[in-house]
Amino acid sequence: MKIQEQNLGSKFLGRADNASAIAGLSTAIDRAVDRFQVSGTMGVEKGIGDIRDGVERVENDIGKVQHELDVIGKGVLSGFEEAALNAIYPRADSARYDSGSQLSSAFCLEDTRVALLQQIEQWVEGPNSRPIFWLCGMAGTGKSTIARTVAKLLDQRQFLGASFFFSRDEDDRRRANLVFPTIAYQLARRIPSLREHIIRATSPDVCTAMMRTQLNKLIVEPVQRSQFSSSTLVIVMDALDECASESQITEMLVLLAPAIRLIQKTISIKLFLTSRPEVHISAEFREPGMQAVSNVSILHDIEKSLVRTDISRYVEHHLQRIGTLILPLNAVWPTVEEKEALINMADGLFIFAAVTVAFIGDTKYRQPKQRLRNLLSDPDQNHASASLMHLDVLYQQILMASLPDNDKGEELEELKLRIREILGTVVLLLYPLSSQSLEKLLGWEEYTVEPTLGPFHSVLSMTLDQTPIRVFHKSFPDFLMDKRRSSDHWYHIDPIEHHGRLALLCLTHMNTSLRRDMCGVGNQLVSELGDVESILLTKVGAHILYACRYWEAHLKEAEWTDELGAALKEFCECKILYWLEILCVDRKLISAVLAVDSASKWALDEASSATLTNCYRYLLYFHTTIALGPSHIYQSTLPFVPRLNLSSSPWEKELHSSPRVVMTSDSDTWDRILFTLTGHYDQVQTVAYSPNGGLLASGSDDNRVIIWDSRTGVQIHSLEGHSGRVLAIAFSPDGSLIASGSDDNTVRIWSSVTGILNHTLRGHLRGVTAVSFSPVGTLVASRSSDQTATLWDSGTGSRIRNLRDLSEWSWTISFSPDGTQIVSQSSDSSIMIWNTESGAIVSELKGDGSDDSRAIINAIAFSPDGTHLISADDKAVIIWDYKSRTIFKRLEEEAICLAFSLDGRFIVTGRINGQIVTWDVIKGSPVGIFEGHTKAVVSIAVSPDGSRILTGSYDRTAAVWDMRNGWESPGVNNSSDKKAHTQAVLCVAFSPDGNRLVSVAEDGSLAVWNIGRHQLIHSLKGYRKTARAVTYSADGRYFACVLDNKNIVAWDVEIGECIKTLNLDIWVEHLEFSLDGLYLFAAYQEWSFRLSWQYSTSWKKWSTQDFEECQLSSPEVEEAKEVQSGTPANSDSPSGTYLAQDKGSQWVEKRCQRITVERLCHLPQHDVTASASVGRYFAFGTSGGTIYLLDFPPETFGITSTGMYTDTPVFYHDSC
């Protein structure tokens, strides 16, 4: 066969033969050349013509061969391609249909499922068949075996593109967010023409992005760009119902329908999906968009005679094998009656047949006849479901067969307890463990798990010692944990009880085993570690690693006990930082954030809850820095924990070898802002909480709605579609929908789960300024500046009616708590109330005459119990008694937005200066002022549990505030007397003796700090100019700074007064005092034009006695240049090292002669704007105006902690 006629597989397998063919062709070329030489002597004219033809033929053949070699080479990945594909991570390699870690390798028995497999084959090959095939079936009907068989057959025929088999037993196989990276990885490996485009699209951000981004970037766009042509590619996905998150699998299905339509325009890719008929999955396949692209086959509705025939063949085949292996050769078994009875009991469930033959044929017990007779005896009829009766009987038989006949009394009861404990552990583990790891987790002796589980080979997968033990089918744990089916028996597993036991085991192991640097990585960064899983399994162990990953997941499902509470308390006091080290190396810090937040709410012990809450705040603030490496827990984050929070925690003892923050102008406790949401490109106009508190939403002038995780601040969806500013958003009462109103005159209704647009509501003539859902969620009310409000059907998007005579500029609309009325501002600025059903005006609320009758109402909100209504305008906040329609109280507050607390006792308002203020409703007075935003707060929402406030601001951020300590707390900065700067710190410098620090901010404010007493000495304000440089005189008496590059200001440090201001007409670049302190030098730029503009540096000099300008000599210029060079002076430390930090870097480094020796500390979450060092002290200022002073331990400079250390003169500073 010609090489070009071979398929790709044949080319690869026959590459040796192809090489021989090419060698033969080379020989032919040589012969042609010889013929050319001979023919030259016989006839030049004829020979040349013949040669020309021959050479052309040879060139054509060579070209064809080269082309075939190129094609063959594409099937083999280069080292670069291999590395590039491995960057598609995280992914789930074990989810492939033929993965070695797949629990079952079972395929359909020959001559079974014939009709169904033919139907699927016709669907694959049909050019006009719909691109999605959903095989739906009840538990135990054989879906996974069929899916595995389909994948194998497709693979053999080179139709298989990729496969993903879900399993709730494995962490990576139960996560829908790994599906698209995994599929992209497999497609790239299988299809060379797609590989390049997928590699180009790969990045860590894409692989960990939202599923919609993953699908588009990794699959849809590469397919559209490729030149791939094939008859059909099929992607197989099995057991969608085993995904851990219903919302994730729903989102995936919603994304697939439009994506497959796009892909079909380029190539023929089809999806084969299987699942149980779960409500959330079935609902998506009933959607019109999905129905248009999918075929549905209900497995349990297939003609029973066909299913019975297949099960009959399966049972007969396996029983015959059992008889051959175990029974004598002449044994007649089973009888026709026994076989028929067994098939009847299966009742269409392949899982029953599979478990039955495994149970009967267990070679350890070699009692097939007896086990079959027991199984076929009269079953117990007391079952919750007749369809499960025979399966329950089977499981009962397996469980009873695990008990020896001759054991009675205490030994039998102990065995039952041991079986129940190990089965409860196996079925509730969130990740399967091997028998050895289970023994360590349970605290059992070696070689006890396998003998105990020996009788359960028919329902559990147990092969080698290090192979995880898994449940064959979910129907077994369902049976064990269902109260209706097993609660009266000794083997019933109470999930709450067993989760509690597992939580206690996890905590106990962590309390006894965790220690500092348990992974042995030292100061290495996580990015430098290589095979992290191998490090964790070797250094930590599988059972401890399991405990670290999943203790909280078991804890939240358990009930409080004193024993469990004591273990949690010990963990919080002694081991929690070491646990964070493990999760840092494991790259699972986000799961740590969720775990401590959840556990803090579970804990009844006040001390444990406080420590976990403190840890939650710590992780929210520092997780980016901790993620660098576990050593940064101690070197770069604990030092910056607020003083009072650190001293009240068990963490302070871990700081013995870490730098310490000995002075800061920041708060002594965590501030009220939990985290800031920074994803918008423009002003945030509106924010909202979902009804269950799990999601946040924000709308912005960047035309987008962003959905966030409320516990971590991680962005989940970015909803794009509006062509104008998003001015209003609202969640539906069940949290499944979001309505958004925009300047583009539309209301859009989105799925909060998937981020997909459901409806666009058109009808308003101007921008939509407010939206609200009715309490039952069936209606949406929208408010527009076209002076109308409209009621819409949220399900269909159709308009119901308009409400007119409204104010042009009001931004409010709200349903009453019972949904019968709608409230908004009318055209005469009063508050109008309409009947929801009829649209008729019910009543109106008018002010008491003390307010501006034409005021624009900025916000309206009902109290949680519906008894009060509050409204805010530019003059006042009015609290109305809603029943009597009278004013209850008037608050003198210019509020832009407002909301009630959960208990209705407080109101929170947003101000134009960025503050939020809390008010006591009864007293009518403010009880707290909180600062954090830099511009107007324009939207406020309170979490459903009342513990948090969400604010949106014109500073382009949204912020989540912690209100668990009460709404009456004072402002954020409880150390405001130390807040010397409110804008970015641009310069810092130490005095020569190292005892003082001067800082200058962007607004020209100056501050002098006493390092020894750790306090502010002078706060020098009044200069509204930008600082550029600052320097101390040698005797420490004066310091000078440059403001706006043209003004030099000199200060007397002792009295804290300005002694001289020099207003210059030059551009000052640098300031330095002479070494004797008698003169001040300034370097400035001089510009000249010679063909082009050029500049040079010149110097000026002033006397420090009277600050009069002096003549500057050449040696003095050289001295000034030497000082300006910043070369560190000699250090008294043994190693001659000093501390430094480059602009734009967050690393504090140990240097010697300007060469970095070691990175010491990463400055977390700070935009460092200025820094300086002296001796072991390092000072830096931030963009927020905060000053930090770090004291590094003597060991940093090679001095033992017991050695003497003397502060050195200034030898390095950043002059900004």
Q: How would you characterize the overall build of this protein?
A:
The chain is α+β, with helices and mostly antiparallel strands. The strands form 14 sheets. Strands 2-3-4-1-5 form a five-stranded parallel sheet, sandwiched between helices. A five-stranded antiparallel sheet has the order 8-53-52-51-54, with no helix packed on it. A four-stranded antiparallel sheet has the order 9-36-35-34. The protein starts with 7 loop residues before the first helix and ends with a strand.
Topology:
Layout: H1 8-13, H2 15-39, H3 44-74, H4 79-86, H5 114-125, E1 132-136, H6 143-156, E2 160-165, H7 179-190, H8 192-201, H9 204-207, H10 211-225, E3 233-238, H11 246-264, E4 269-275, H12 279-285, H13 288-291, E5 294-298, H14 304-326, H15 336-346, H16 350-360, H17 368-376, H18 389-401, H19 409-428, H20 435-442, H21 449-453, E6 460-461, E7 470-471, H22 475-481, H23 483-486, H24 495-513, H25 532-539, H26 542-555, H27 562-585, H28 589-602, H29 606-626, H30 632-637, H31 643-647, E8 660-664, E9 673-677, E10 684-689, E11 695-700, E12 704-709, E13 715-720, E14 726-731, E15 737-742, E16 746-751, E17 757-762, E18 768-773, E19 779-784, E20 789-793, E21 799-803, E22 814-815, E23 821-825, E24 831-835, E25 841-845, E26 857-862, E27 868-873, E28 877-881, E29 886-891, E30 897-900, E31 906-910, E32 916-920, E33 925-930, E34 937-942, E35 948-953, E36 958-962, E37 985-990, E38 996-1001, E39 1006-1010, E40 1015-1020, E41 1027-1032, E42 1038-1043, E43 1047-1052, E44 1057-1063, E45 1067-1073, E46 1079-1090, E47 1092-1103, H32 1114-1124, E48 1138-1140, ...
Parallel strand pairs: 1-4, 1-5, 2-3, 3-4
Antiparallel strand pairs: 6-7, 8-53, 9-36, 10-11, 11-12, 12-13, 14-15, 15-16, 16-17, 18-19, 19-20, 20-21, 22-23, 23-24, 24-25, 26-27, 27-28, 28-29, 30-31, 31-32, 32-33, 34-35, 35-36, 37-38, 38-39, 39-40, 41-42, 42-43, 43-44, 45-46, 46-47, 48-49, 49-50, 51-52, 51-54, 52-53
Helix pairs in contact: 2-3, 7-8, 7-10, 8-10, 10-11, 11-12, 14-15, 14-16, 15-16, 16-18, 19-24, 20-26, 24-26, 24-27, 26-28, 27-29, 28-29
